[in-house]
Amino acid sequence: MTSSPVPPPRTPRRHDPRMQTVEMAALTAGELAPETTLGSGPLAPPLSPLRTALLVAVGGGVGAGLRFALTVLAPTVATPTLVELPWATLWVNVIGCLGLGALTGVLEVRPGRPWMLPLLGTGLCGGFTTMSSVVLEGSAMIGADFPLIAFVYALLTVVLCLGFVVLGLVGGRRLAQPSALRGLRRRGSTLQIQDEEGGA
Prior knowledge:
Helices cover 64% and strands 0% of the residues. It is an all-alpha fold. Helix 2 runs parallel beside helix 4 (116-128), helix 3 (87-109) packs antiparallel against helix 4 (116-128) and helix 3 (87-109) packs parallel to helix 6 (147-175).
């Protein structure tokens, strides 16, 4: 019985000569000056896994409760001969995507407390939105022989949710601009008006 030869030990990818290209050399952190990198300020101490899980659970419970209340207020009609778009699910997903985009935009400009993203982002927005219901409702529409309505519903969900994430991101970033910058802009426009009046 012959044994197969032992393969030589593999070198890590970063030391592989095939990876030593000009592009890879440009990515080494040692050559970057501190002013050329984007900084987000001092890092906040991370939350413990237990505290993070509790925050996500509380936010998810509140979000799921709000979603349930909205679906009770606007129920969907679904019978063997009539299927309508589940507007409550669509609006829940759109509002949740807008909220998550706005939260992310604000936190990109002004780093918040460590509990904000687990509680409000992952928990509240994650529990409020329900992409799994979109799949279930779309499958039920196809099973009831309404494939066109299922396609329109899926397309509306994807387009509106992505659009509202971007809208929330841009709006959140604008709302979170430091007030000092806004004050400088106001003072700059006031000085410009005074210069124009003095020159007249």
